[in-house]
Design goal:
Layout (H helix, E strand, L loop, with lengths): L16 E4 L2 E4 L14 H10 L5 H12 L13 H11 L5 E8 L4 E7 L5 E8 L4 E4 L3 E3 L8 H5 L1 E4 L2 H16 L12 E4 L9 H12 L13 E5 L3 H10 L4 E5 L5 H7 L8 H15 L3 E7 L7 H11 L4 E7 L13 H13 L3 E4 L16 H7 L1 H7 L5
Parallel strand pairs: 6-9, 9-10, 10-11, 11-12, 12-13, 13-14
Antiparallel strand pairs: 1-2, 3-4, 4-5, 5-6, 7-8
Helix pairs in contact: 1-2, 5-6, 7-9, 10-11
The chain binds S-adenosyl-L-homocysteine.
């Protein structure tokens, strides 16, 4: 089996000409077939009726997928066999094919590389703790935000994921959790963070729809708590303002990484459009609206953003606000000129923030061995490597 080359295409320019092997071709981003998880219950009922089945089949199929985490027709024994074959092939097409699954941290962290129907590759990470299991999911194949320290940012954007491609990552990982393989953790997946590949707010309508599907009670959805979902953004201010208006109670994480515009312009290039003051304003307004602390993400990069004066400036910006700082030791990406800050520098940064009255924690570094840690998800490199992708096929875990 070979892996199709992934040609980066901006979904905003569906007809853009791309260079492929010296030939100029036109390719459209190819969205996947319709899936149950793309639809709300009413739309599913219409869909099953269009297939000549009674409306109540929509609920039965939904119970299998969202309630029992079952997608295999053979296990749907309450449905006549011709019906189950028809309904699964029409409404539960395979969207994600596992290409490789890796585990580390004694099996508590598991990364899955998926191939999508058009050959694009994305990754998800499952993280087990003593009291919870968290799924870190991708919202786009690649990313267009170009943050220079992030592996996904280096590969550019391939395309947005569909609602069901996002939801299916979670449903699949909920199934992995339920199988009990994540030892030392509960069997029920309870949290989702949109911190995998992509910028969730650049795929806004689909991400919001996916959040609704994940949080609607079974059988219509997966029944997770909105409070247990975190949407992380580089700071697309208009989309953050739209999110405020949705009146959801998801946690918002803002990837700040620098308290001053000079440096943030470089580390998070979208800052050239929406400045630190504006992005923090939107984050504070979100916190005020929801009553939920925003999480300020800050990857500590040695001699780049880890100076005591930057900790003090960040402390002043966040003092008295409904905000929590999550410091992430930088995970250096291959060929990166940057490194994590030394521990004493990190400790001093934490101390100064806390001294300013800002609650601060340092994130654990789960998944480093399998390149599954923050900012290390870079499925595109595997595709471009070609042979690497084919070799990975040998390890397909079905
Ligand atoms: N696009 C979104 C979500 C994806 S990344 C966002 O930027 O928020 C999730 C977090 O990992 C972000 O805070 C991101 O800045 C951070 N990150 C990216 N690359 C990293 C790296 N090499 N080391 C540590 N954190 C990184």
């Amino acid at each position: 089996m070979t892996i199709l080359p992934v040609i980066p295409i901006s979904p905003d320019q569906p007809d853009s000409a791309v260079q492929s092997g010296g030939v100029q071709t036109r390719r459209r981003p190819s969205m996947p077939p319709r899936h149950l998880a793309d639809l709300d219950l009413a739309a599913r009922q219409t869909a099953v009726q269009d297939l000549g089945e009674p409306a109540f089949r929509a609920k039965q199929l939904s119970t299998h997928y969202f309630g029992r985490l079952v997608r295999d027709a053979a296990e749907m024994t309450d449905l006549p066999s011709a019906t189950r074959d028809k309904l699964t092939s029409e409404l539960l097409p395979t969207l994600l094919t596992p290409v490789r699954e890796q585990a580390c941290d004694d099996g508590a962290t598991r990364k899955t590389l998926w191939r999508l129907h058009d050959g694009a590759l994305v990754e998800s990470v499952l993280m087990g703790y003593s009291d919870r299991i968290t799924a870190c999911v991708s919202s786009q194949a690649g990313c267009g935000m170009a943050c220079p320290f992030c592996a996904t940012g280096q590969q550019g954007l391939t395309r947005n994921l569909s609602v069901a491609e996002i939801v299916d990552q979670v449903v699949y990982l909920a199934g992995v959790s339920a199988s009990g393989v994540v030892t030392g953790s509960p069997n029920r997946l309870s949290r989702v963070v949109f911190m995998g590949m992509g910028e969730p707010l650049a795929n806004y309508p689909r991400v919001i729809e996916a959040v609704r599907r994940l949080t609607t009670p079974a059988p219509e959805g997966l029944g997770l708590s909105q409070r247990h979902i975190t949407v992380s953004t580089v700071g697309l201010v208009p989309a953050m303002r739209r999110l405020i208006a949705e009146q959801l109670s998801v946690t918002l994480a803002l990837s700040l990484h620098a308290p001053d515009d000079d440096l943030r312009d470089e580390l998070v290039p979208v800052n050239q459009r929406w400045k630190v003051a504006e992005v923090l304003d939107a984050a504070f307004d979100y916190a005020a609206q929801t009553g939920r602390r925003v999480s300020i993400e800050y990857a500590l990069i040695r001699d780049v953003n880890d100076q005591p004066w930057r900790a003090d400036l960040l402390g002043r910006l966040l003092h008295g606000k409904l905000a929590h700082v999550n410091l992430i030791p930088l995970n250096p990406t291959p060929g990166s000129k940057w490194d994590a800050s030394p521990k004493p520098v990190e400790r001093e940064f934490v101390r100064r923030l806390r001294e300013s009255g800002v609650s601060t924690t340092v994130r654990d570094t789960r998944g480093r061995e399998i390149d599954g840690a923050c900012g290390q998800l870079a499925a595109g490199e595997l595709t471009q490597a070609g042979a690497g992708g084919v070799a990975a096929d040998a390890e397909v875990a079905q």
